[in-house]
Amino acid sequence: MRRQRGFSLLELSVSLVVLGLVALLILRFLGQAQQEQRGTAQRELLQRADDALLAFAMINSRLPCPAAAGGNGEEDCGLGQVGVLPYRSLGLPDLGARRVRYGVLRRAASEASDDADLAVSRDRFQPLAIVAQKSYIAMPTTYAHVNGLDLCQALRTATRLAPDAGYLHTTLPAQPGTLGRHIAYAVALPGDGAFGGQQASTSPAFDSPQRASTPDFRDQVLAVGNEQLWARMRCGDNLSAGGHAHFNAALAASMLRTALYDYKQQLAVSKKLAEANVASAAAAILGGAAATADSAGGTADTASESLASTGAMSWRVSLAAIATAGALAVTVTAAALQAQAVKANDQAKQAYEDVEPLITEADLLQPLVLEQAQADDATGMY
């Protein structure tokens, strides 16, 4: 008889165990692959939301307000700082965007210079500009031009404000309950169907994107800080050029115009002094001539007396001659001084005449530069 061979009970048991382990590994691999695929899709959705938020801010000079949960995806600025992503206002067609938790910093203030409500368009930027043409006083000035420069100013203000848990912020990565830093905006998606951590609350807090995943926490968070949004919008370059450089040039043009008018007044004084010096030199010449004539007459009288006294008064003749020579020297010196005074007077008159065209050009330049600075403020980021 032939011997029939098959699996023994032990071999069958071992095979079943191996097959079970393989099936377990396959299921775990498939679960991890599915979870990784879901995480990739979530990150891509959050990245699209981030791109849409940046584009909205660049176009509207503000960030959008949150939308109501279960609503139509339109922003609702009465909700405060946290809600769901206003996907319809952003133009996102992905219906998955309605599950995105969204928060925006809304730290309002009565004074525009202290306002950091990033969801409101407001004229916050106040360049230093000339406001009084006669006194040339420069003061922080608003021109009612609301654009990206004003959003940049709000971001600058937000970076200077003290931490406050009542406003949008992220928590520390290793301490989820501790305030970390203020942020401009944040978006988040739940990892397993429901939010965990800070996203599960109604507070204006988001977990740090660096928080480690755990079985109880798999939320995906993307947060953009005030400094980060400042850099992405190139606020530094735009504020330096359109906000400060052009207004500084306008201020310099006004100061130059004022300096030229002051210089003209100084030249007028110099011209008067030069005219006075010419008159003084002329008077000195007349005085010297009179003294010379008087000394000459005295010399003649002294000579007559010397002859009458048979030479006894001859020494007085020498003194009279010296006096006459001194008076003549004074006249010659006064004439030389008069020539110098006339030359200085001519130079003062010429300088006074030369400054007039410069003042005319400054009068034309100053309003043009200020007008260009105001146009740059109106242009904003573009």
Describe the overall structure.
With 382 residues, this protein is an alpha+beta fold. The N and C termini lie far apart (97 Å). 57% of the residues lie in helices and 11% in strands. The protein contains six helices and ten strands. Helix 3 packs antiparallel against helix 4 and helix 5 (235-308) runs antiparallel to helix 6 (314-379).
> What portion of residues is helical?
55-70%
Average pLDDT taken over every residue: 77
Distance between the termini: 97 Å
Largest beta-sheet details: 6 strands, mixed
Unreliable parts: 311-317
Q: Given the helix and strand composition, which structural class is it?
A: alpha+beta
Q: Please state the CA-atom Rg, rounded to the nearest Å.
A: 46 Å
Order of helices and strands: HEHEEEEEHEEEEHHH
The outline comes out as rod-shaped
**Given the structure, what is the number of helices?**
6
Q: Count the strands?
A: 10
Oligomer: single chain
Strand percentage lies at 5-15%
Sum up the structure in keywords.
single chain, 382 residues, six-stranded mixed beta sheet, two-stranded antiparallel ribbon, 6 helices, rod-shaped
Topology readout:
Layout: H1 9-60, E1 82-84, H2 87-90, E2 101-104, E3 106-107, E4 116-117, E5 128-132, E6 137-140, H3 148-160, E7 169-171, E8 179-189, E9 205-206, E10 220-225, H4 226-232, H5 235-308, H6 314-379
Parallel strand pairs: 7-9
Antiparallel strand pairs: 1-2, 2-8, 3-4, 5-6, 7-8, 8-10
Helix pairs in contact: 3-4, 5-6
